[in-house]
Hints:
Elements: H1 2-7, H2 16-26, E1 31-34, E2 40-44, E3 54-59, E4 64-70, E5 76-81, E6 93-96, E7 99-104, H3 113-116, E8 126-128, H4 134-137, E9 146-149, E10 154-156, E11 160-163, H5 166-180, E12 187-192, H6 200-209, E13 213-221, E14 241-243, H7 254-266, E15 271-272, H8 283-286, E16 294-302, E17 310-313, H9 314-327
Parallel strand pairs: 3-12, 3-13, 13-16, 14-15
Antiparallel strand pairs: 1-2, 2-12, 4-5, 4-9, 6-7, 6-9, 7-8, 10-11, 11-17, 14-16
Amino acid sequence: MLKELCLLNGTSGDEKIVCDYIVNEIKDYCEYEIDNLGSIIALKKGKKKPEKKVMLCAHMDEVGFIITDIDDNGYLSFDAVGGIDAKVIAGRSVTVNGVNGVIGLKPVHLLTDDEKDTAPTMKSMKMDIGAKNEEDALKYVHPGDYAYFCSDYTEFGDGFIMSKALDDRIGCMLLIELIKSELEYDTYFCFNVQEEVGLRGAACTAYQVQSDVSVILEATTAADLCGVTGGDRVCVLGDGAVISFMDGRTIYDKELYALARKTADDNNIKTQTKTAIVGGNDAGAVQSSGKGSKVLAISLPCRYIHSGASVVKKSDIEETRNLLNKLLPKLYD
C-alpha cells in the first residue's frame, strides 16, 4: 500500500487521485465525507461511544511544482508548491501531465567563477520537456499545471525505503490500517489537503470535527548524516517513532507527550524526540481551531525530506504502528 500511495501524484491543490485511492480503501469500513476543500473526514464506529472525541490526522498532499510560464523555445518556468530547496532539484527528472522532462540549468562548463560558487535558484532553472518551441509545448502543458518528481519506490540497504511523497503517505497508510481494524471506540480520521502550503485542510476538518484529543501522524526531518553529531542530528533513522514536545508551529500537550512516552517504555517500543524546534505540521491548525484540541504528533524520521528521494526505515514504521495500537485505547480516558 505504501508503494502505491507514494507513486500517486498529488501536491497541494491537486490531491484528487490520492483522495480517490484512499476512499476506495476505506469506504467499506467507515462513514466518510469529503469537505469543500477536498479533505476526507471519516468516522470509524467502534464497540463503544467515547466521552471524549478523538481524531487522527495525516495529510494527502506532497511537495511539487507549478508551471508559471513557457518561453519562446518551449522551456517551462516553474515555482515550488511547498518547501523545496532549489539545490535538490537541479537535474531531476519530472513529469507534467504525463509528459516526462528534466529540470535543467546552465552546464558546469559554461559557468563563470562566480556562478560556480553560488547555489542555483529556482528562477535560474527551466523544465525541459523536449518541446520545439512555445507552440509545441502548449500542446501538452499550460501555466497553472502541476509537475512532480519522477521517482521510483526503492527498498535498499538494511531495511531502508527511498521514494518521493513519504511525507506523508506513510501517515495515510497507517490511518487506513486503523480504519480497517476493529476499534474499541468511535474514532474520527482526517486525511487533509494542502498541509504543505499552510495547514489549510486541517483548519477546516478540525473545525468540522471539534475533537477533544488529536493525534497527527507525520514524517519529520532527520539529519543523521555523515559529519552531523549530537543534537544537530534532530532525529535518527532506526531509533523509532518521533514524539515531539514542540516544533515551529506547536507546543504539544504535556500530558499526551508523557502518556505516549510512557506507553512506549511500558511496551518496549522504540521512540525518540526531536532535538531541534523546527518545522511544523497539521497540529498547528488543529490545536487552535474552534474550541481547541489537545494535540500530539507522532512522526517517522525521514532523511532528505521534501525531495524526490526521501528515505525512511521500515523498522521505524513498525515501531510507530505498534505505538499507535497501544496508545489509541488510552486516549479516550
